[in-house]
């Protein structure tokens, strides 16, 4: 089969399409004929060998989420899975390929009303957005900030926060992205590439921010944390800016800092969040934005676009 191989730590150019042996499911596993492979910001960090996230043993096939059809089942697996349209995590790697292995306990059937691309987009982003939103404990009437508000997780957070009755201020890096966030339900939007954006945000929330969902980190954290009121919640769920920021002890005082892992770490904790996200989207209560797709052979271009923060919504590979 064809697969994308990360041959060593470095830039997107280290991703190459290679012919590798077809995988075969072992006990408790299925093989999925991949229609869509999830591309996440974390994939770019792992490929680059950045210090946050697990260290990968090169060479490896990236990708921790796929959608497709089960074409083979291993020993002990219900044969009723064969031919099912599913989405699943893959155990951390192996998704950027024509076939991928998954545990049968990680499989979700694609519900009616969702395309395979939409369901695949919810694998990582849906569970993250639901878990992050709950960990922020935002209440009706509070003011909430969502960074990277036009991204895969950010766009879902905007919708969840707006539906809970909060006043949502979206932060994004271009006018087009701000317009997208407003279309998803944000009440106000601020472009934060450039000078003076923290002052504009302060004008929108003079009493301080109740909840911040920070998926960017880096210098954005240094600006947002002081604007968070005492008793507010600051949820750190990503580092799209390239690094997690060190926290100023004075700015932290009196505020609750919520780490990403508050949403859970284990498959048993994360599985129901994916199921719930799929159900909400199938019922029309969450809009999934698949902003761009790339053929398998252009995985390097997909990584470059994500690192340049030139994407909207979810990015997928189509083997």
UniProtKB/TrEMBL annotation:
The keyword NADP applies. Keywords: NADP, Oxidoreductase. SUPFAM superfamilies: GroES-like, NAD(P)-binding Rossmann-fold domains. Residues 10-317 form the Enoyl reductase (ER) domain. This is NADPH2:quinone reductase. It comes from Actinocorallia herbida. Coiled coil: none annotated. GO terms for cellular component: cytosol. Pfam families: ADH_N, ADH_zinc_N. One of its GO terms (molecular function) is quinone reductase (NADPH) activity. The keyword Oxidoreductase applies.
């Amino acid at each position: 089969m064809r697969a994308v191989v990360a041959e060593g730590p470095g830039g997107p150019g280290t991703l190459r399409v290679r012919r590798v042996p077809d995988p075969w499911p072992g006990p408790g596993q299925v093989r999925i004929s991949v229609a869509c492979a999830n591309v996440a910001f974390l994939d770019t960090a792992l490929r680059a060998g950045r210090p946050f996230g697990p260290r990968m043993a090169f060479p490896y096939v990236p990708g921790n989420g796929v959608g497709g059809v089960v074409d083979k089942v291993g020993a002990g697996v219900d044969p009723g899975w064969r031919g099912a349209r599913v989405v699943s995590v893959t155990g951390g790697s192996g998704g950027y390929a024509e076939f991928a292995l998954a545990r049968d306990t990680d499989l979700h059937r694609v519900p009616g009303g969702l395309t395979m691309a939409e369901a695949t987009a919810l694998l990582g982003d849906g569970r993250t957005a639901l878990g992050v939103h709950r960990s922020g404990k935002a209440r009706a009437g509070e003011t909430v900030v969502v960074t990277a508000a036009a991204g895969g997780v950010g766009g879902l957070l905007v919708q969840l926060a707006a539906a809970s009755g909060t006043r949502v201020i979206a932060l994004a890096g271009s006018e087009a992205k701000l317009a997208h966030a407003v279309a998803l339900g944000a009440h106000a939007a601020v472009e934060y590439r450039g000078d003076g954006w923290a002052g504009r945000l302060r004008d929108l929330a003079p009493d301080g921010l109740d909840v911040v969902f920070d998926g960017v980190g880096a210098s954005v954290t240094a600006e947002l944390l002081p604007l968070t009121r005492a008793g507010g919640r600051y949820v750190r769920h990503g580092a799209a800016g390239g690094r997690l920021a060190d926290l100023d002890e004075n700015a932290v005082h009196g505020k609750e800092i919520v780490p990403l892992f508050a949403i859970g770490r284990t498959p048993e904790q994360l599985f129901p969040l994916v199921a719930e996200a799929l159900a909400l989207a199938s019922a029309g209560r969450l809009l999934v934005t698949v902003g761009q797709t790339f053929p398998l052979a252009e995985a390097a271009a997909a990584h470059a676009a994500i690192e340049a923060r030139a994407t909207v919504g979810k990015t997928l590979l189509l083997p």
